[in-house]
Each structure stands twice: as structure tokens, then as C-alpha cells.
Write a structure and sequence with these properties.
By secondary structure, the chain is an alpha+beta fold. Helix content is 29%, strand content 12%. β1 and β2 form a beta hairpin. The relative contact order is 0.17. The structure holds zinc ion. The site of zinc ion (ZN) has 8 residues, from α2. Zinc ion binds next to α2.
């Protein structure tokens, strides 16, 4: 449409341009990369990624401590 297409970023997953409406929307989620940059993900992609996030946050079974024989 106009020059706002990339001003607010784009979805990390589907590359959909993030519009000013999206900035005010709670649909998009932000992601802070280790290097300090902030990326955004649109609503549908956020929902699609939820299982990944939950999987990452799910407590992993801790390997059993070595048992002294
Ligand atoms: Zn997306």
C-alpha cells in the first residue's frame, strides 16, 4: 500500500507486514532475540507457535543422578 509496510516490522514466520493497526493489536506477540533485536509474530502464527513455546517451557525430565553403586 504505502511506505508503512516495513516500518513496524513483519511477521517472523509468514513475513506478513505489521501495520499500525497490528501495533495496537494484542494479536501480535513480540519476541526478543538474544542480540537485542525485537521481532514480531502475527496472531495466527503466534497460535501456531504456541505448542512450540509450551514444549520449550515444559519441564524436561531431569536425567537421573548417577546412583552410587
Ligand atoms: Zn505470521
Amino acid at each position: 500500500m504505502d511506505a508503512t509496510s516495513t516500518r513496524h516490522g513483519a511477521c517472523l514466520t509468514c513475513a506478513r507486514p505489521r501495520t499500525l493497526d497490528d501495533v495496537h493489536s494484542l494479536e501480535w506477540s513480540s519476541e526478543h532475540a538474544p542480540d537485542g533485536t525485537i521481532g514480531f509474530r502475527c496472531g495466527p502464527c503466534t497460535r501456531e507457535q504456541l505448542w512450540r513455546i509450551e514444549a520449550l517451557l515444559a519441564p524436561e525430565p531431569v536425567a537421573a543422578a548417577p546412583v552410587a553403586a
